[in-house]
Amino acid sequence: MVSKRFVTKRLLLLVPVLFGVASLVFAVLHLSPGDPAVAIAGDRASQEFINEVRADLGLDDPLWQQYVRFLGEVVTFNFGESYQVQRGMPVSELLADRLPVTIELAILGQIAGLLFGIPLGILSAVKQDTLTDHLTRVGALAGISVPIYWSGPLLILLFAQVLGILPTSGRIGSAYFIDSTTGFILVDTLLAGNMAAFRSAVMHLLMPVVVLGIYSMAFISRMMRSSLLEVIRQDYMRTARAKGQGSKITVLKHGLRNAFIPVITIIGIQFGSLLGGSVLTETVFEINGIGTLLVDAISRSDYPVVQATVLVFAFLYTLVNLFVDITYSVLDPRIDQ
């Protein structure tokens, strides 16, 4: 059972982390070259018009006033309105529309990585130095070494252009229009009871999920193997086998629980990487998630959207790490002492 004191302490640690991220994002944006007022007014606009735009946005205020105003907006979850990406649209609505797309991709990629990574890691460990072990290690090394911007176009070329069995981009076929209830296209198609649209969404998401899952699977597999090998060599494992317990039962009953602790660390880090990797994945497969939103906002100097997007990434990442910490204490109660 997780103690309330442990969870409260971890939640309080989120405050300085998010404050630091917010301050860093504000500093980087305002110290970097580029003027949102010029981007909005256009290169041929007069200086007077640019000054008016700057005044309307509050960018002519002293920097410390802008910083205090920004922190106040963050605390109240009011991220202002978009300058350029969707001019005049509240950033919170923009994020609410795009965020489920990215989270859905990251969750599916993580599930794919877990489904294949953990069994392969266990198999590689229990069959150490066999052909199975060598093949698994080579496959994991290849998965880590292949970048998303290379594997994505390669899969599109093979399965969409050559074989023609999967669509090249998007989340669902253009023939289907599904009302957004949760923002997760697979869930929304099921809620609508449209199985043809569900199959279309599955086919569209298959390649992006595989691209994200390969990278996650490779890391999890390698960590699972090394962690389980270390546990197998412990004295209590030898004692269990000496008492006549079968090797498979010994590994499943006594080894996996302890071997999972470092693996969970990797899973938490990987989820953050999947969110970051979604920027490339969404760009390659033309999916309008929060990753493509961030790239678009940076190119147009849309400060509110960039600040809110980075903060959301940081918040999700810290939440995942909080879940990892809680899982630690469940697997090993000594950790929250």
From TrEMBL:
Leader sequence residues: none
Listed GO CC annotations: plasma membrane
Xref: CDD domains: TM_PBP2
Stored SUPFAM superfamilies: MetI-like (SSF161098)
Record keywords, A-Z: Cell membrane, Membrane, Transmembrane, Transmembrane helix, Transport
Membrane topology annotation: Multi-pass membrane protein
Domain ABC transmembrane type-1: 99-324
InterPro entries associated with the record: BPD_transp_1_N (IPR045621), MetI-like (IPR000515), MetI-like_sf (IPR035906)
Places the protein is found: Cell membrane
Transmembrane segments: 105-126, 138-160, 201-220, 259-285, 305-324
Entries under Gene3D superfamilies matching the protein: MetI-like
Pfam families in UniProt: BPD_transp_1 (PF00528), BPD_transp_1_N (PF19300)
Family the entry assigns: Belongs to the binding-protein-dependent transport system permease family.
PANTHER family, per the entry: DIPEPTIDE TRANSPORT SYSTEM PERMEASE PROTEIN DPPB-RELATED (PTHR43163)
Protein name: ABC transporter permease
Source organism of the structure: Halobacterium litoreum
